Amino acid sequence: MDEKTMSTAERDARPVNGEKLREFDRALAKYKAGKSSVERRAVAAENWWKLRNQTEIRKETDGLSGFKAKSGWLHNVIVAKHADATEAFPEPNILAREPDDVKEAGMLSKIVPVVLDAAHFEEVYSDCAWQKLKTGTGIYKVYWDADKLNGLGDIAIDRVDVLNVFWEPGVTDIQDSKYFFHTAMMDNEVLKSMYPQLEGKLNSTAFVPAKYSTDDSVPTDGKSVVIDCYYKKREQGRTVLHYCKYVGNEILYSTENEGAAPQAETPLLPGAPHRAHHRVLDKRCLHQVYLHLVVLAQVYVAVAARAALHRE
């Protein structure tokens, strides 16, 4: 039945209704609060990467008057690590599990590289390598893009920012999270062109994901947060995955059996219980601070020695 022609009673009788969306919103707010330290670390990491490290150093070196540091040493470390990652770009090697699978494995060995190339996977891999080095986690989203190939549809692979995903606090595998959320900020006019039923229903949203520090001002007026929610339920003796896309109080899409969640994370190092793991920045930030302090001390010693010689 068309969404626009459904009565209020019919909408409320659906498995995913207004009350269910409010349940999603409560869980999302709880998950965001539990992820606040991860978000602060991600924003701080981006500041270090953009050579805005003075902002972060000031938090850790209160009382060191006159200490200014904007060296590119840490930036160069990340660049070198990224070069290593891209040099190790993986190539699919499909092996047969059984003798009868040899033919299928040979076919997949030819098909999978073409699919990855069409999805620009090498570029996505590079972007995720940057993210993994800076924030500790690279997140891929694999999904079916119905708009590709002039509407025929095809597999798509994108990088997902760690600030835009939310999971149950304490879990080490997103598959164990009761809910898993992926959010995206979209222009209201674009949303209304995609979903005409949203006309007059897009109000300001109470939920806004964390943002990085940027040189330009990024306005959020005229935009809404679109939320993808994945959750599992036991039905007829088996576990099925449900998926709901919604904005505000309006359901854009809901399904009863969607398979496995199309988000998979690749941690840099094990780091229970959070999904944002150890970063190269975690290991190197203090090194850079100490390096600057040593250089600064050497400068002060040299200046003092020269002043002493001048007095003599």
Please, could you describe this protein's structure?
With 312 residues, the protein is α+β, with helices and mostly antiparallel strands. It is built from nine helices and eight strands. Strand 1 and strand 2 form a beta hairpin. The protein is globular.
Strands, count: 8
Which regions are unreliable across 5 or more consecutive residues at pLDDT < 50? Answer: 259-264, 268-274, 283-303
The portion of residues assigned to helices is 40-55%
Radius of gyration: 25 Å
Determine the number of helices (DSSP H or I, runs of at least 4 residues): 9
Adjacency order of strands in the biggest sheet: 3-4-5-6-7
Distance between the termini: 95 Å
The dominant shape is: globular
Mean of residue pLDDT? 77
Outline:
The protein has 312 residues and is α+β, with helices and mostly antiparallel strands.
Mind sketching the topology for me?
Blueprint: H1 8-12, H2 18-34, H3 36-49, H4 53-60, H5 73-87, H6 102-118, H7 121-135, E1 137-145, E2 154-160, E3 165-167, E4 179-187, H8 188-194, E5 223-235, E6 238-247, E7 250-255, E8 263-267, H9 280-311
Antiparallel strand pairs: 1-2, 1-8, 3-4, 4-5, 5-6, 6-7
Helix pairs in contact: 3-4, 5-7
